[in-house]
Amino acid sequence: MDMPPILSGIRRQMETLSDRQRVIAQNIANSETPGFKARMVEDADFSDLLGNSGTGGIRVAKPRVELTAGMKGLGAIQPAGAGIVLDKDISETKPDGNNVTLEDQLLKLGQVQADFSAMTNLYRKQLSMLKTAVGKGG
Fold first, then answer.
1. Residue 84 in 3-state DSSP?
2. What global pTM score does this model have?
3. What is the pLDDT, as a whole number, of residue 80?
């Protein structure tokens, strides 16, 4: 049995938020590492959920840049992990090249916590509605 699209979307968003929390923790752990650049997790891609929603199979995809051997030869580096990119929302860079600001990272961590709470509440309400629909109470 397939998972309803709303629950699948909630699950995927919670996984993305978990990845964000892990990357923020890595940023904080490397806040004093010379030359370290803050990273972030890209937003989740929910385009596959549109295919089943009566939109005629419309696919929406975010363009992705893959590094070629030539690009790597010129010094381009792929950030570690899939969907993990260098953070462009930074407030300062230290003289040693490190651009991690603890205040910024803590604000981002607070947003992750708020978003995760919202997803948890949505999940709980969806389960309650499903239980009501099958006559198991709510």
1. strand
2. 0.71
3. 47
Spacing of C-alpha 27 from chain mean position = 15
Distance CA 114, CA 118 (A): 6
CB within 8 Å of 32: residues ≥ 6 apart = 98
Whole-angstrom distance, CA of residue 94 vs CA of residue 37: 11
Q: SS3 for 85?
A: strand
- Point out the least confidently predicted range of 11-20, 38-47, 100-109: 38-47
> What percentage of the chain reaches a pLDDT higher than 70?
75
C-alpha 17/C-alpha 83 separation (Å) is 12
The C-alpha atoms of residue 75 and residue 126 are separated, in whole angstroms, by: 48
**Looking at this protein, which amino acid is placed at residue 59?**
R
Contact assessment for residue 55 and residue 66, using Cβ atoms and an 8 Å cutoff: no
How many Å apart are CA 119 and CA 117, to the nearest integer?
Answer: 5
